[in-house]
Amino acid sequence: MADSGQARVIFQPSGRRGSFAIGTPVLDAARALGVYVESVCGGRGICGRCQISVCEGTFAKEGLTSAADHLAPASDAEARYAALRPLADRRRLGCQARILGDLVVDVPSEAQTNRQIVRKRAEARRIDPDPAVSQWTVSVAEPDMETPRGDADRLREAVAAAAGLADLSIDPPLLPRVQAILRKGGWTVTAAVYRDASAPVLIDLWPGGPKPLYGLAVDIGSTTIAAHLCDLASGRTVASAGTSNPQIRFGEDLMSRVSYVQMNPSRLPELTRVVRDAINALIGKLVGDVDAQRSDVLDAAFVGNPVMHHLFLGIDPTELGGAPFALAVSDAFVLPTRDLDLDISLGGRVYMLPCIAGHVGADAAAATLSEAPYASDEITLLVDIGTNAEIVLGSRDRLLAASSPTGPAFEGAEISCGQRAAPGAIERVRIDRETLEPRFKVIGVDDWSDEAGFADRIDQVGVTGICGSGIIEVVAEMFLCGLITEDGVIDGALAERTPRIVRNGRTFSYVLVDEGIPISVTQTDIRSIQLAKAALYAGVKLLQDRLGFDRIDRIRLAGAFGSYIDPRYAMVIGLIPDCDLAHVGGVGNAAGTGARMALLNRQHRREVEETVRRIEKIETALEPRFQEHFVNAMALPNKVDPFDRLRAEIVLPPPSGLPGEDGEANGRRRRRRR
């Protein structure tokens, strides 16, 4: 359980972690790590705002086993609170629960004062509606003794005649309701018909005339879930909402979750349940926003990376954890919503977009549909940067795809002061070239840290860490002003110029914030970013090798992270290849846009299915040149690629010649730049 009187504790969904003395209250551990858990009673067990729960199981990547009995039994104060206001299943009060052993602690969303910001809005896109669901108002002949035909049969014939369908069937769960609805409507009813690639099915029925019908487009990301409610008739997105993916409590990245299922196979249903529950909660919010009913939602389209795709469907993802990374199912298909426990119309349908390959999922397929590189003569690079970067490269002549294991560094994990995008996270950084003093912007505050209004507003959110876009900018700025070399080594000699360079064992760190919670960029942080960006860049280079083109005409950065990073800084550190910066930009939640396109137009479904069959998948782990490209990409921006177009716009530091081994402290002076 615990070693030498210390226990390791990981808080989710923030990912913050540390070691604490046995007997430490969970709330105290959270505060020590800057994890915001609400508490207004001073830790007396009265307010109940600090509720937490323990994620049980073996977490192989973290090397720990977490269990409920790694917390001390309930205190008297906790028992009194539970008697007055019963705690939800497996919940504890963080101020009373004391640590006895290693733990993974889940902080429920209602106990988080600084919640992660879900940056997956619906992008503006005109989509011509041709939905799979249509509605037909018909009058059905009343039964009589002379014609002993069933009510449902006469209904089916009336709808088939109105819609011009010869092979219409009725969804079996609807049959018990048909007679009551026909009589309630005075024999005039409206039927919803689902018609896609398969035979048409009458899926819902209500008395009277037509009503607004809605569809749902959902992007299940490893960190966040985004859902969009669309009017099926007009194609308009009427409401959008997002939430953190609750599966994060079982592992921060995809392979951690695969490992968790391998180590704890009996908990697979729980991973499926929590993501479906989160989606059902989003549906409730969406329909409430437009004053609709859940039963008004009759169609849905879902995308996600392969692991999320399988877990949502209740499929064991362990085969995706090792070569040959076999998918249980890759083609597009349609399921009744009732088979997925989705709380919408009983007869509703879900269209699952196809996956491209074992590590390139339906989200990449949807992003490809959205950006349509297959319809252009330009060589387009489409990248969705996450814990596993999905890459598509090509044009109308040829399309290739690959994935690269970038890890969670760009989302704040594996960074000493890293966090996900939430109020209080540093998202923008600038460093003065002469004084080496930083200024920064924090999510939730509009002013820069050196502006007059910052001090008045920062108390509302605090400065709690640094998120992915901030990590990229601070590394790029440190490189541009000479604080780190092209090999990523922090120059300890600059401690003579600025007190912000401090010794950290055998290496040095740069102090970004020295008030409140100290925030520093360590040598290990730099290495984590180098490893992540090198993995992505090497994947792109392999696709370029296979395509036979060195040039890239345009770069599209998909996903929430891709939309909020500055392309200039991404190119400075060598995260993306050299390209005309005017042709580099974020495209927002392209996967969500592709899901909406497939939801609203049946031809887009055929288009994405055909496109996925054309894409050539490159397995980076099997390519002999991957290691060569990876090593070259560890340098800033790259050891061999010249980045001429970037240098035409930005003055990059020349090679420094700074001596010293990788990451070791070095006090020698840098050659003077001219």
TrEMBL record:
Record region (Disordered):
651-674
What's the superkingdom here? Bacteria
Annotated Pfam families: Fer2 (PF00111), RACo_C_ter (PF14574), RACo_linker (PF17650), Raco_middle (PF17651)
Q: Which residues form the 2Fe-2S ferredoxin-type domain?
A: 7-111
MF-aspect GO terms:
iron-sulfur cluster binding
Q: SUPFAM superfamilies per the record?
A: 2Fe-2S ferredoxin-like (SSF54292)
Entries under InterPro entries matching the protein: 2Fe-2S_ferredoxin-like_sf, 2Fe-2S_ferredoxin-type, Beta-grasp_dom_sf, Corrinoid_activation_enz, Raco-like_middle, Raco-like_middle_sf, RACo_C, RACo_linker
Name this polypeptide is given: Probable electron transfer protein
Native organism is Polymorphum gilvum (strain LMG 25793 / CGMCC 1.9160 / SL003B-26A1)
Q: Identify the taxonomic lineage of the organism of origin.
A: Bacteria, Pseudomonadati, Pseudomonadota, Alphaproteobacteria, Rhodobacterales
